[in-house]
Structures are given as C-alpha cells and as structure tokens.
Amino acid sequence: MRGPPILPDDLSLRDLLLWVERRRIAARRRLTARRVAPVARPAASEPRPAAAAPTGAAPGTVLTLDAPTPDLRRFTVAKPSGFSYAPGQSVRLELEGTRRRYTMVSAPHEPALEFLVELVPGGRMSARLRGLRPGAAIGIAGDPKGGIALDTGAKRHLMLATVTGVNPFVSILRDAVRRGRTDLRVVLVHGASYADEFGYNEELSALAAAHPGLLTYIPTVSRPDEPRNAGWRGARGRADALIEAVIARHSLAPADTTAYACGNTGMVETAAARLGGLGYRVRTETYD
C-alpha cells in the first residue's frame, strides 16, 4: 500500500485547493487507463449509434469516468445552467429511461457534478452505469433534495461512513475549505471491506495532513487478513466498532458534538443506536 502523499511546504489555502485538484485529476487518469476497458469501435461501414437522450430531465454529458474497483464508478457530469444545491444533497440521475437518486460528492462551487456509485448486482441502473463512458448522455431529473446537512450549531462533528457513504462528507469538507471554515472540527471514520474501496483516500489524507485542526481522517478495513488488503497498515474493524475508541481519543463530548452515519443500513442503524444511547445528536442516511 502507498503511504500518505507528501505535501509541499507553506501552502496557502488557494494553493492547497489547486494541489488537491491536480492530484485528483491525475488519479482519475491513472485509474481510467488501468480499470476501464476500452470500447470497441464499430466498423467504418456501420454508423455509430447516437447516445439516448434523457426524457423529462435537464440534459447532461458525462465528462470523466473511472472505476476504482470493478463495482465502483466515479464520474463527473456537466452541471446544468442555473443548477444549485447544498453540500450533502442528492439528485436523481436518468440513464436510458431509468432514474435513481445519488448524493453529490462535488461542492456547490465546482463546475461539474461528481458522483461515486456502488454497483448493485441485478440493479437496472447499475447495469447501465457499468457500461457508462465519457461523452454519454445523462439526465439531471428534478431538484436536489434531502441528504445530510452539516449541523451549524455544533463545534465538533463525528462522521461515520461506509464506501460511498463518504460522498456527502467529502462535499461538506470541500465546501468548508472553500469557505475557509477553520472553526470546524471533523473526525471522519470511513469503513470498507477492502482498502481499494476508499474512493477519496488520497484527497482526504492530503486535506487532513494540511489542516489537522479541521479534519482527522480514519479509514478502516473490516477484512484486514484477506489477500486483497495485503500491506494495509491502517485501522482495522467496522466503522461502528470504533465509535467508543474514537470518541475517547478525540474528546468528543455530546454537548458540543453532532454525529452522522451514512452508507450501509447495518452500519448506520448500529451506529445511530450506539451514539444515541451515549447522548449524541445523530443525523443519518442509508444507501441500500
């Protein structure tokens, strides 16, 4: 496993944002080349079929795409004119007549909408996303809504996520950096079965290294002894199993801390019950 990225010294906030964006773009290019199979070109005598246009939705185009694992797709979509949203919100995407709601990873100031989606075996939308390619037509259906919003009345924030459950938290953190919210104190515990499922490990590690007062990032794997996790040197166990240890280590008191749990239903329900029993305010969202 690769170690944490090395940051240049004396970065300003603007330089940090540019540095992180360059690393994200480079990572996408590497992953696209390695993970996404090339699309066979039709013979010259066969006209290439046009992409299906979304119906009843704002038209969009897939700009970038990579596959961190065979069952994950990370992609960006051109943001429709006038489209606005709050960090942590979700929107319905339409692809070949099928619609599903997904939480945006991107922050509102970014020029494109970004998504990290876990493919579900047998799912209609998952089957369409599995064959997605840059340049494909995709619809933005309806207004953004719901999601997990940051509790502006809390000083500290304990965030627990599984795989794509990190999406709203990345959006919230990008927005916080953009706004210079150095008053926030966030501890983010990100759980997954395998280390390659941490879709934003490099970005969040870089942010935590540059702004340790803003973010503590704790990725943890629940199957550390499997070959796929060979070389893993980070935390071990389910995200919800680390709650008490993380609370104690970072002195997170219920009086000034709001907790959040997002992702797999089992983790979210277990975490919410445990945190609620300890007296914390808890905001949740499930993705099953």
TrEMBL record:
Residues 38-61 have a biased composition (Low complexity). GO terms for molecular function: oxidoreductase activity. It comes from the Bacteria. It holds the Pfam family NAD_binding_1. InterPro entries: Cbr1-like_FAD-bd_dom (IPR008333), FAD-bd_FR_type (IPR017927), FNR_nucleotide-bd (IPR039261), MRET (IPR050415), OxRdtase_FAD/NAD-bd (IPR001433), Riboflavin_synthase-like_b-brl (IPR017938). PROSITE patterns: FAD_FR (PS51384). Residues 55-151 form the FAD-binding FR-type domain. Residues 38-63 are annotated as: Disordered. This is Ferredoxin--NADP+ reductase. It comes from Caenispirillum bisanense.
